[in-house]
Amino acid sequence: xxxxxxxxxxxxxxxxxxxxxxxxxxxxxxxxxxxxxxxxxxxxxxxxxxxxxxxxxxxxxxxxxxxxxxxxxxxxxxxxxxxxxxxxxxxxxxxxxxxxxx
Length: 102
Description:
four-stranded mixed β-sheet, 27% helix, single chain
């Protein structure tokens, strides 16, 4: 991202969550698609970039839908980063991270 380090108090990270979708899928067109092989590294790099632009003690809100990739797989990909707390509603999760806790 074209922002300086430690710029924001709050960052929301809502990456694509689909590993497979039809070529003409509305969901794919609107939200994008994960690479079937490199998605764990892509999510890890995305999280690292969000944390880079976050101020110390800043808050990162992470949204994930586990329809195609389970949350536990995502959390494994971003280790040792772990959420302070989260909320689950159906297959969608909202997790809260704090930069100073990471």
